[in-house]
Specification:
The chain has 19 helices and 9 strands. The protein is of the alpha+beta class. Bound molecules: protoporphyrin IX containing FE. Protoporphyrin IX containing FE binds next to helix 6, helix 13 and helix 19. Belongs to the cytochrome P450 family.
Length: about 500
């Protein structure tokens, strides 16, 4: 009997070995699969370098790869960076690819805000948000807030660390800057996080933790997440703690603002009063349409959606941009030359100077360098969709309502078949036409700001802020990387540097 059972054991071992060896051969080519567990162990083993791994696999499969996890984990993912598929899903067959209930579950902390809604609720929110962001008064508010933050927040810090010879984490500085400006746009208050004493910012920390937990919700099977929630451990525990902090702070903002507006202590007409919260509280009944309730929950959801939209994306983009420019001297010098061209002949060029939004608006090279930086390091590194009905993508892949379609924006920017042989290189020139103007790249190829009807509404807000900060830094300071500091992406729904961006800064002019 023992001999008999040993026989079964050996047969079982032989089968396992067969699958392992078979998969070992394909290991070098693609992601390997195991019986029962599918590609799940491969995914977990490569999680620390998931973005590069995706790029590697998707380059080899010419843009689309089907990843199947264990059946109990409900993990059926189609990864694609094929521009034809992106165009189909985001634009031409948009109605069949809503964000869906799965997205809402993963991003539940965003409530019913614009990022997390579909159909009429989304349409209504988008209409409102677009009208507010395109309003002339909001534009004035944006210009003055961006200028003030650079002049009174960023410059004193850079001067201070330069004078003291201190090392500084620029990622932290940019997060503080965009946190302050976004708070000001959204709520009308400036929390003053960008200051020399680097105060602790529980709200900001809570947002980072929420984003990391949301990332893990994309990777881990539901059963593991449920267990974490049940046992009160891991990322799910952090998520619920951070969620509470966000709710408490936002609730305070709403009640203070409502009180101020009731008492009439804040003007709602001048540009100082043109924050989104004030505008949303003051919406007329005819402006609120289908499905929207004008209550505190709606205000809370709107605030958190805009805070994530504005703070994180812009500070991530600035961090990667300054690192790339500082480590590519030719690009740095070209930006400096372009900035010099703005300075009037009767003005001393080699002097401390800040640049006005209007002076930077039409500069081609700095715009090209920002696009190039977001091609390689898109602040939102991936997105996902679920089809409503079974469908066939232009690449020929079949999809159905249980399959998660993921676009890796990070991988997309690095595909040789999309961007050419030099796709991994930082070359702003690829964005400049022969006539010297910005070359338009279709959004289904350069997806950093999304594509189709859900295209980012804050693109101009982001470029305005990024140019103001970048020009001030590049014209007035030298940035030197701290030797040996590792620059690697983190694991989150926003592409930050895992260890921050540690640099030393010196002034260019006496
Ligand atoms: C470099 C900066 C930015 C980048 C790379 C960026 C990128 C994106 C992306 C990828 C989406 C689609 C997200 C999704 O559907 O899941 C999006 C949507 C959105 N963005 Fe941005 N964004 C940036 C800055 C901003 C700013 C500063 C604001 C507002 C002040 C903003 C407002 C929005 C809004 C409201 C949406 C939702 C659009 C919709 O679903 O209809 N974004 N953005």
């Amino acid at each position: 009997m023992a001999l008999f059972s040993l026989g079964y054991f050996e047969i079982f071992l032989a089968i396992i070995c067969f699958f392992y060896l078979r998969n070992l051969r394909s290991f070098k080519r693609l992601a390997w699969k195991l019986p029962i567990l599918g590609t799940f162990p491969y995914l977990i083993m490569n999680i620390h370098r998931i973005h590069d791994k995706c790029a590697e696999v998707l380059e080899k499969t010419r843009g689309t790869y089907h990843l199947k996890g264990p059946s109990f984990a409900n993990m059926d993912i189609l990864g694609t960076v094929d521009p034809a598929n992106v165009h189909y899903i985001m634009s031409s067959n948009f109605v069949n690819f809503p964000k869906g209930p799965e997205f809402k579950k993963i991003f539940e902390v965003l409530g019913d805000g614009i990022f997390n809604s579909d159909l009429d609720l989304w349409k209504c929110q988008r209409k409102l948000a677009r009208a507010l962001l395109n309003h002339q008064s909001f534009h004035k508010f944006l210009v003055s807030t961006s200028w003030n933050k650079v002049e009174k927040g960023l410059i004193p810090i850079l001067d201070y660390v330069a004078k003291q010879g201190l090392m500084v984490d620029l990622q932290d500085v940019f997060q503080r800057l965009t946190f302050d400006t976004t708070c000001k746009f959204v709520t009308g208050y400036d929390p003053g996080c960008l200051s020399i004493d680097f105060p602790g910012v529980p709200f900001s920390k809570a947002m980072d933790e929420v984003e990391e937990a949301i990332f893990m919700r994309h990777i881990l099977p539901e059963i593991v997440l449920k267990l974490e929630r049940w046992l009160g451990i891991g990322q799910e525990k952090k998520l619920s703690k951070s969620w509470k902090i966000l709710d408490e702070v936002i609730c305070k903002y709403i009640s203070v603002k409502q009180e101020e507006l009731k008492k009439g202590t804040k003007s709602t007409n001048d540009e100082e009063g043109f924050d989104l919260l004030t505008s949303y509280i003051n919406l007329g009944d005819n402006e609120i349409t289908t499905g929207l309730k004008r209550d505190d929950k709606f205000l809370r959801d709107t605030i958190i959606n805009f805070m994530i939209a504005g703070r994180d994306t812009t500070s991530s983009a600035l961090t990667w941009f300054i690192w790339l420019v500082s480590t590519h001297p030719t690009v740095l010098n070209k930006i400096r030359e372009e900035l010099k061209s703005v300075i009037q002949v009767n003005e001393e060029a080699e002097n401390f100077r800040l640049f006005k939004v209007d002076e930077l608006k039409n500069l081609v090279y700095i715009h090209a360098a920002l696009c190039e930086s977001m091609r390689l390091y898109p602040p939102v590194p991936f997105q996902h969709k679920f089809p409503l009905q079974p469908d066939t993508l232009p690449s020929g892949h079949r999809v159905h309502p249980k399959i998660k379609v993921i676009f890796s924006l990070y991988a997309m920017g690095r595909m040789k078949f999309i961007w050419g042989k030099d796709s991994w290189e930082f070359k702003p020139e690829r964005w400049i036409s022969e006539r010297g103007t910005i070359k338009h790249e279709p959004s289904y190829k350069f997806l950093a700001f999304n594509a189709g009807p859900r295209t980012c509404l804050g693109k101009e807000v982001a470029f305005t802020q990024m140019k103001a900060v970048a020009a001030a830094m590049i014209h007035n300071y030298n940035v030197e990387m701290v030797e040996g500091h590792p620059v690697v992406p983190n694991l989150s729904v926003i592409l930050y540097m895992k260890h921050g961006l540690k640099v030393r800064v010196s002034k260019r002019w006496a």
